[in-house]
Amino acid sequence: MATLFVENLTVLDFSYLHAKRGMVGESWIVDLELSGDLDAQSMVFDFGHIKKQIKRVLDECADHRLLVPVENELLTQGTDGEERISITWRYPGGDIRMRAPESSILLVPAMEISKGNLSLLLTERIGEVLPANVTEVLLTLREEEFGTSPFYHYSHGLKKHDGNCQRIAHGHRSRIEIHENGRRSRYWEKLWADRWEDIYIGTQEDLEGTYYIDESPHHRFRYESAQGLFELLIPEDHCYMIDTDSTVEQLAQHIVEELTREAPGKHFRVRAFEGVGKGAVAEAGQMRV
């Protein structure tokens, strides 16, 4: 038996429901090992097919979705008969209620979302597209190593996007780099990491209203995009509102504008990441001489 491996096969950017934290944006890197007998090409499996077939399975299954642990007692689930799912997640911070197309949610048969539980589900899905000579699959999910650099988890939705980013509840685990007058500032990085810890970044024009549940204010977002109608109710203190779309370009610009407002007379350069290895840069203010 032979084994091949592929590191950094893909990155899964998604959000999931947590019993204490509520909705959490996440980015997990996928590594893969396949073991089995060699085929007629003296291969376990063609690397080209791995990148096309297996990556497609992983992306379609879990990427840009809200992952929901269906065996948790905090969850109430239903459907409305139009290929839409309705969920309510009642946790200590309040209620998270969502109605959205089935394609935007992954129901995971577990009490909680973990690397182990998701790996089991994804391994089963991968097995459906593998040739008979492949007998073992080892799928590893891991986070990007940031060292001591500050980072945050955020969720959002981009209704104008022509791909899966239009789904109202998907997210990222992202680091941030901020330079103040040409020097790296861990102070400002930590401040924004704390400010956007486990946050939902909402666009003002998508906000339908604010409602009270058990005397706690909740924001209700609603929009229709190419994939269907999306509705999300989430505690107000779990949200951060901006006036623009929440693309990473706009987020970088928002951060740098807030920095120059909070610390006038200084120059800032922001590198805001969207998950792993990608993001946007924004600059504002005057550099001191």
* CATH topology type: Tetrahydropterin Synthase, Chain A
In which range does the helix fraction lie? 10-25%
Per DSSP, what share of the residues sits in E-state strands of 2 or more residues? Answer: over 45%
Regarding quaternary structure, what we see is single chain
- Termini separation: 65 Å
Number of structural domains: 1
Secondary-structure element string: EEHEEEEEHEEEEHEEEEEHEE
CATH second-level architecture: 2-Layer Sandwich
> What overall form do the CA principal axes indicate?
globular
Largest sheet, strands/sense/barrel: 7 strands, mixed
| The level-1 CATH class | Alpha Beta
Continuous helix count: 4
* Mean pLDDT level: 95
- How many beta-strand segments? 18
Radius of gyration: 21 Å
**Which class best fits the helix and strand makeup?**
alpha+beta
* Low-confidence blocks of residues: none
CATH level 4 superfamily: 6-pyruvoyl tetrahydropterin synthase/QueD
Description:
With 289 residues, the protein is α+β, with helices and mostly antiparallel strands. It has one domain: 6-pyruvoyl tetrahydropterin synthase/QueD (Tetrahydropterin Synthase, Chain A, 2-Layer Sandwich), CATH 3.30.479. 19% of the residues lie in helices and 47% in strands. It has four helices and 18 strands. It has helices at 47-62, 115-127, 186-195, 248-262; strands at 2-18, 22-36, 66-69, 75-79, 84-91, 94-101, 105-108, 134-142, 151-156, 170-180, 183-184, 199-203, 207-213, 216-225, 228-235, 239-242, 268-273, 279-284. The strands form three sheets. Strands 9, 10, 11, 12, 16, 17 and 18 form a seven-stranded mixed sheet that branches. It has a six-stranded antiparallel sheet with strand order 4-5-6-15-14-13, with no helix packed on it. A hairpin with a 2-residue loop joins strand 5 and strand 6 (94-101). The longest helix is centred in the first third of the chain and has 16 residues, at 47-62. The termini are far apart. The mean pLDDT is 95.
